[in-house]
Amino acid sequence: MATRSPGSVPRFTFMASLIGIDPGAHESRRFTTSDRYRQAWPQVFYNDALPKSAVLYNFGIPGATTAQALRDEVPPAIAAHPTVVTVWLNVNDLIRGVSAADYRAQLRQLVHALRRGAQTQVLVANTPDLGQLPAYRACLPNAPASGPACLIPDGLVPTPQALTAAVDAYNAAIVQAAKQEGAIVVDLHLNGAQIGQHPEWVSADGFHPSAQGYVTIAKLFEDAYRRVG
């Protein structure tokens, strides 16, 4: 765990842009579990990994890119003086066409600010294997009729090869930024194929995590946190 003075209250700050094809969707549409606050991965991580004295601050903005997080999430997060920060910001940047180079620079700036001169432990999640998601596979030729609807406009669906290359470029950028700034990478990519092997991790829309998916994400954050604790 992060070092703190005796008797101090550990402060955990959640900063994550929730995955969504529609970046403008309202938060209530983005959580597809029965209780979106108790079952969301930051709350599960907070409950399972941190002491009861910890305080949770949630600065996540649905649909936010890293650039927006730098402007709107980082200042209040720093003001909270956290000892632990979790960051999951990548899919919305990728959807909006932010280059891997620009994303890396923005992410490094964000992590640098949050680290507060190594006073804060920062956990940064990488990009899941989006090509395994049913919502993407529904957009490919010969998609199963029983699956979710394709929400990507015609002509904008990337090939599997292009999507894999984009995800790999982002994940390389995350590793580089985290190494440069002393952050810990949380592997949500899992070397591919994991999502396809665990359909119970994905909600009925084929894109967002299910309740079991949130538990899995929280466990991956917890494992990374405990390895360096």
Low-confidence stretches: 1-7, 16-34
Overall shape? globular
Radius of gyration: 17 Å
Strand content: 5-15%
Number of strand elements: 5
- Average pLDDT works out at 82
Strand order of the largest sheet: 2-1-3-4-5
Biggest β-sheet strands, sense, barrel: 5 strands, parallel
Helix segment tally: 10
The share of residues in helices is 40-55%
How are the elements arranged and paired?
Blueprint: E1 11-16, H1 27-30, H2 41-49, E2 55-58, H3 66-72, H4 74-79, E3 84-88, H5 91-95, H6 100-115, E4 121-125, H7 134-137, H8 160-181, E5 184-186, H9 194-197, H10 211-227
Parallel strand pairs: 1-2, 1-3, 3-4, 4-5
Helix pairs in contact: 2-10, 3-6, 6-8
Can you characterise this structure?
By secondary structure, the protein is α/β, with parallel strands linked by helices. The chain has ten helices and five strands. It has helices spanning 27-30, 41-49, 66-72, 74-79, 91-95, 100-115, 134-137, 160-181, 194-197, 211-227, and strands at 11-16, 55-58, 84-88, 121-125, 184-186. It has a five-stranded parallel sheet, sandwiched between helices. The longest helix has 22 residues, at 160-181. The N and C termini lie close together (4 Å). 42% of the residues are buried. Mean pLDDT is 82; it is low at 1-7 and 16-34.
